[in-house]
Amino acid sequence: MRITVLTGAGISAESGLATFRASDGLWERHRIKDVATPEAFARDPELVHRFYNARRSKVAAARPNAAHLALARLARHHDLTLVKQNVDDLHDRAGSPEVIHMHGSIGGALCAACGHRWPAPAVMAVNDPCPRCAARVSRPDIVWFGEMPYHMERIWAALDQADLFAAIGTSGNVYPAAGFVQHAARRGAECIEMNLEASLNARDFDRQILGPATGTVPQWVEALIDSG
């Protein structure tokens, strides 16, 4: 069976990482437009770096939970494509062999001048030089609002071939990821949502499994493995 799974910030919430709440426009007490857009970085790069330095520290202290570990196990039994919206590395640390980071990674740095990428230090600063071109416009390797997500061709191809599509811990209000379920359904995949509560696009799924990811995801994975 070919399975494509999309995970959002909700899967890491039980590991202690905050989720983005669109209802109040705040993300860890900051306005999204002040820390997660190209315009914010151009206007106040020091603030943006402070915000992501703090997030990097929180991610480093977090640990994969039972949902991350269950998906890593699923990859050992089925043809799994794992796509993640959140920028932490918990899927990787849980042992998932190939994780598509469509919104980048908190552990990466990117040169805004030449596009070179390298592992981010624990603390990034405005004047950090690029290891390749020495330009001092280093930024987190994260896809901000208004930018194009990474690896889209690979993701669409996986959705085209999927027999089963599952969205876990996603809000259903951030595109293009919110449109993945419709694309997979048009190609004939069964579509399942796992969330604490129904998402904004819940009607597009064949069924919902509601509850904490650390409970629902391991149970779902066990059932898939047992069914062969």
Word description of this protein:
Helix content is about 30%, strand content about 20%. It is of the alpha/beta class and about 230 residues long. The protein folds into two domains: about 1-15 and about 65-105 and about 150-228, TPP-binding domain (Rossmann fold, 3-Layer(aba) Sandwich); about 20-60 and about 105-140, SIR2/SIRT2 'Small Domain' (2-Layer Sandwich), CATH 3.30.1600.10. Strand 9 (about 165-170), helix 7 (about 180-185) and strand 10 (about 190-195) form a beta-alpha-beta unit. Helix 4 packs parallel to helix 8 (about 215-225). Mean pLDDT is about 95; it is low at about 20-25. NAD-dependent lysine deacetylase and desuccinylase that specifically removes acetyl and succinyl groups on target proteins. Modulates the activities of several proteins which are inactive in their acylated form. Its EC number is 2.3.1.286. It catalyses: N(6)-acetyl-L-lysyl-[protein] + NAD(+) + H2O = 2''-O-acetyl-ADP-D-ribose + nicotinamide + L-lysyl-[protein]; N(6)-succinyl-L-lysyl-[protein] + NAD(+) + H2O = 2''-O-succinyl-ADP-D-ribose + nicotinamide + L-lysyl-[protein].
Keywords:
single chain, alpha/beta, SIR2/SIRT2 'Small Domain', Rossmann fold, 2 domains, three-stranded antiparallel beta sheet, elongated, zinc, six-stranded parallel beta sheet, 22% strand, metal-binding, 228 residues, Sirtuin_class_III
